[in-house]
Amino acid sequence: MDWLRSLDPTLQDVLAALGRAILAIIPVFAPVPFIIWYERRLLSWMQDRIGPNRTGNITFSRTSKMIPSFLKGKKFKLFGLAQSIADGIKLFTKEDIMPTKTDKFLFILGPLIALFVALTLGGTIPWSGDRRFTPVADINVGLLYVMAISSLGAYGLVLAGYSSNNKYSLLGALRASAQLISYELAMGVSLAAMVMVTGSLKMTEIVAAQEGPLLGFIGFLPNWNIFTPFGLVSGFIFLICIFAETNRPPFDLAEAENELVAGYHTEYSTKRWGLFMMAEYMAMFTFSMVFSTVFLGGYHLPLRWEAIGMDFMTSIENSYLGGLSVMMLKGVVGLTLYIWVRATYPRFRYDQLMNLGWKFLLPVATGNLIVTATWIMITKVYGAAPGWMFSFGLYAVAVAVFVLLRSKKSTQYLDTRSVDMINQPARRTVDLVESKPEEVPA
Amino acid sequence: MNGVPLAGFIALSMFMFITGVVGVIIRRNPIVIFMCIELMLNAVNLAFLAFARYRFSSPTMVEQGAAGQMMVVFVMAVAAAEVAVGLGIIMAIYRLKENIDVDELNLLKG
Amino acid sequence: MKLTPELIIFGMLAGMAALSAVGVVAFKNAVRSALCLVFTFFILGFLYFALHMEMLGITQIVVYTGAIMVLFLFVIMLLNLGASHVLEEKSDPKKVVGLTFGVALAVLLASQIVPILIKVQAPKAMPQFGSPQVIGSILFTDYVYPFEAVSVLLLLGIVGSVLLAKRRLS
Fold first, then answer.
1. How far apart are alpha carbons A338 and A341 in whole angstroms?
2. CA-CA 20 to 30 A from B70: which of A147, A399, C77, C89?
3. How far apart are CA C41 and CA C17, in angstroms?
4. What's the predicted TM-score (pTM) here?
5. Do B12 and C99 touch (CB under 8 A)?
6. H or E stretch including A220?
7. Would you give the end-to-end CA distance of chain C in angstroms?
C-alpha cells in the first residue's frame, strides 16, 4: 500500500472515491440474480405453485470413470438458483430486434438511463459505520440527492415509450411520467418530516440520530424513526411512494399487461429488456435501503447493545462487513414486502392511483409535517413529556376519526375490490341504487 | 473552484442567455420557445450564483452572498408556477385550434 | 492563467452545457430539444456544486430536471408534438436576422464584461456557504415575506393551470 501513499493527494482522493463507488455498486448489482430467484420462488409459494426449482441441479453419474469415487451418484440441489443465470444468458444471446421507424438513439438511451438511475441512487447511503468505505460521498444534501436521482428515473421510461413508435408504449410512458411526478410530492413531504426531526439532510447524521434511546427514555430500544408516531405515518407514506416510484404492483400502470401489452417496454427484447428488468430490481433493492436508512436505523440492529451490556455487537455493526450484512438483511425484508404486496393486491385503476396520490397521501403527509413541526416546538418550549403526550394523543384522535369515518362511508379511494370488474361488474351501480340519495358521493 | 476566473462562469451564462434569445426569435413551436425562456432564466441563475460566490464568500459576508442564492430560489419557484400555467395555456390553444404554430395564432391582429 | 484540474473540469462542464444549449434551439424535433434542455440543467446542477452551492445544485436537479422537464415531455407527448407532421418549420429569413442579432449581442456583451471579470479569481472556499442550514435560516428570517408571496404565487399557479386544463362541461 506504500505506493498508494506516495501518489499525489488529489489522485489519492480520486482513487478512494472510485473505490467507494465500486463498493457501493457491488452490493446492489451482485444480488440481482438472487432477487429475481427470490421473487419467483416466494411468489409461487404464495400462489400455491412450485416455481423454478430444477435449473442448476447437478447429478453425477454412478458408472462413469471420469467422476472421482466420492462424487459418484451424488446430487447437488441449487433450488433453481441457476435459472436467473440461464435467463441472463438467453437474453444476451437472443437476436437483437429493433422495430423500424424507431428513434434509434433514444431507443438505446432509455434503458441506459434506467440503469444509471438504479446504480447511482445509493450514492449517499451509508452501508456501515466505517467511514473509509462508505458512503461514496457524505454530502450535506444526501437525502435530496436520493430524491433528485429517483426523479430522473422517469426519463428512462418516457424515452423508451416515446421512441418505440407504438401507441401502447406511448400510453405507458405518459402514465409513468404522470405517476412519478404525482408520487414524488408525497414522498418529498413525508421525508421532510423526518428531516425536521433529525435536523439534517446528511444520511450519516440521520442514522446517528436514530441511535439514542427510544422516545428518550426506553433504554434498550433504539430511537428508530419508524417507532415514533410521526415516523410511522411518514414511513407508511414513503413505503407506498417507493412502490409507485419503482413501478411495482399495485402501481405498475405503466406496464399494465392486460391493457397496454407491456407498456413502455412493449418493443423491447433481449439485452435492453434485460437492462430494464435489472434496473427495476436494483431500484427496488436500493429503495429498500433508503427506507431502512431513514426509518429503520440504517446499519443497526433493533437493540441498543451498550444498554444491555453487549458492547462487542456495536463494533461488529460498525465494521464494514457487519454493517453491510445488517443492511442486506433489511433489504431482504423490504423485498419480501414488495413481493408480498405484489401477490396480494390487484392493480389500481388509473383514477384510483391519482386519487390515492393526490387526495390521500399528500394531505396526510402534509398533516404529518405540521404535527411534527408542532411536536418539535412543544418539545423545545415545554420539554419532552408534553411533546410525546401531544403527538400520541393527536394520532390516537386521528386514528379514531379515521375508523369512525371508514365504518360509515364507503372508502372510495382505498377500495381496491372495485377493480374486480369481471366477478362483480355491477357492484358500484348496486351500491348507488341501494344507498339513500343524500349518501351518494358527488 | 480555485483557478477558474469569474469570467468563465459569466461567459457561459451569457452564451446560454443569448442562445435562449435567438431561440425565442427563430423558433415557431411555442413549447420550444418556452424552453428557451427557461434556458434564459437558468443563465441568469448561474450568473447570480457565480457573483454571489466570487464576490461575497468571505465569512463576514454570508448575508450578502445569500441574497444571490435567495434570488435563485425565487426564480426557480416562479419558473415552476410559470411552466404549469404556460403549458396549460398551450394545451388550451391546441384544443381550440389543433395547431400550435405561433405564426398562425393571429386572432388579435386587427 | 494556470491550467489547474478545476479549470479543466469547468471547461468540460461548460462546453457540454453550451453545446446542449445550442441543441435546444437547433433540433427540429421537440422531444430532442427537451432532452438537450434536460442535459443542460443537469450540467448546471454540477456547476452549482462546483461553486459550493450544494443545496441549490440539488434543488436545480429536483425542480428542473425532475419536475419541470418531465412536465414538458408529458405535454409534448400528450399533444404528440414530436411527430413530424404536426409542426414543420420552414426555413425563414427571420432565422438569419435572429442569428445575426444574437451574435451581435454576444460580441457586444463579451467585449464589455469579460476583460474586467477575467481578473477576478475565487477567494478561499467557505464550506458552509451554500449548505441547507445557511439557506434555510436566511430564507425563513430575512426573506420570509418574499417566501410567503411566492407560496401564494404557486397556489395561484396551481389554480390557474387546473382552470386552463379542465375541459368545460357545457
1. 5
2. A147
3. 8
4. 0.84
5. no
6. strand A218-222
7. 68
Contact criterion met (CB below 8 Å) for A102 and A169: no
How do residues A27-70 score in pLDDT, each as one tens digit? 888 888 888 888 888 989 888 888 888 777 777 777 777 777 77
B6 touches chain C (CB under 8 A): yes
- pLDDT tens for residues A107-166? 888 899 999 999 988 888 888 877 777 788 888 888 889 988 988 888 888 888 888 888
CB contact under 8 A, A148 and C82: no
Contacts of C77 in chain A (CB under 8 A): 158, 161-162, 170, 173-174, 177
User: Does C contact A via 3+ CB–CB distances below 8 Å?
Assistant: yes
Q: Are A55 and A82 in contact (CB under 8 A)?
A: yes
Contact (CB<8Å) A158/C54:
no
Q: What is the CATH number of domain B6-104?
A: 1.10.287.3510
Q: Which residue of C has its CA nearest to A162?
A: C77
Task: Concatenate the DSSP letters of all residues of C57-121 into one string.
Answer: HHHHIIIIIIIIHHHHHHHHHHTTTTSTTT-PPPP-HHHHHHHHHHHHHHHHHHHHHHHHHTT--
> Which residue among A145, A159, A181 sits closest to C58, beta carbon to beta carbon?
A145
- Residues with Cβ within 8 Å of A31's Cβ and at least 6 positions away in sequence, in order, are A285, A328, A331
Q: Which of A112, A123, A97 is nearest to A156 (CA)?
A: A112
Q: How far apart are CA B61 and CA C125, in angstroms?
A: 13
**Domain C5-84+123-165: which CATH class?**
mainly alpha
Please tell me if residue C159 touches chain B, with a CB cutoff of 8 Å. no
Cβ atoms < 10 Å from Cβ of A260: 21
C-alpha cell of residue B48: 447570480
Q: Which of A281, A282, A316 is nearest to A299 (CA)?
A: A316
Cα(B3)–Cα(A366) distance, rounded to whole angstroms? 45
Domain residue limits, chain B: 6-104
Question: How far A142 CA sits from the closest chain C CA (Å)?
Answer: 9
Q: Are C55 and C135 in contact (CB under 8 A)?
A: yes
The residues with which A11 forms a beta bridge, in sequence order, are: none
Domain borders along chain C are: 5-84+123-165
State ipTM.
0.85
